[in-house]
Amino acid sequence: MARFKRNITSINATSSADIAFILLLFFLLTGTLNPDEGIFRELLPDTSTARLKKKQDIEKRDLLTFTITADNKILMENEPVSIPEIRRSAKIFISNPEKLENLPRNAADAVISLEVSRQTNYDTYLTVFGELSAAYNELRNELAGERFGKMFERLTEEQQNTVREEYPIRITEKESKEKGGGQ
Amino acid sequence: MSRFRKTPVRAVPSLNTTALPDLIFTLLFFFMLVTNMRTVPVLTQYQLPSAAELQQLKDKSLLVWIMVGNKEEMQLNSDLCTFDELPALLDGIKSEINPDEFSKITAVLKIDKNTPMGTVNDIRQILRAKNILTVYYAAEKLF
Predict the structure, then answer these.
(1) In sequence order, what are the residues at sequence separation of 6 or more whose Cβ sits closer than 8 angstroms to the Cβ of residue B44?
(2) Cβ separation of A127 and B49 shorter than 8 Å?
(3) So what's the ipTM on this one?
């Protein structure tokens, strides 16, 4: 039998580029390039038992107070402090590397109190809060590196909990009573 | 002389665009991978504060978005609201969620950096009263 060659007609794909362009534009318009970044914070539950649990005697050596005044001045133990200093001194306070008498015996006992005024800027507050949680994160990372040779984020849930027990984040916040203008 | 004989008109060969869709698909995939979808429309104008050591928002389920703009206008999820409406609206949101999952709700706070802390504290008090205890302060990286 005689076979004849049939030509396969090619599909015209000129407009498939346009279709791809439309898809591309859709993703360009609906997507945002910067991912959501921020700081997590667990609030204390609003029950009376929780409030009772919170009520405990904190020894003087276990407490470090930061105050942000209404005119956005940052004070540590009532003395002005610069932003890089916050993290450094918080780390020293929590870990107490030289076992000083006036700093916490145990890192787990350390409490950082953050007092803000109602007029304080949110920006200033979050900068300070970020520095404080960065101090905790750095300490956790150091401990995780020592014990497990990994970053805290990469540990298993169980390992993370042991590190968390060592350095629990204990930052209490309160609103200062003062009304308006500084000090 | 034959050398200078007029040549016949030559047609410009057409451009082969078969690979063009592939090119654009590559671009498309790039943008699909690096961008993330906007989940709620932003009706307020805010400039986020800056802080160090930020964490990324990984779990994107059960989020409550609260935004406060630079004129203290407030937005809950995709609608504008006032401060006094907030508790009732939060109750409404919680009624749509399975009670077992209440503890997993995260409130994403996108608050303008010039907002006074009084407003932030009030919002936190409401969230605490409604038992939404995980809060996420959206911020920009401090360089």
Answers:
(1) B67, B68, B69, B73, B74, B75, B80, B112
(2) yes
(3) 0.75
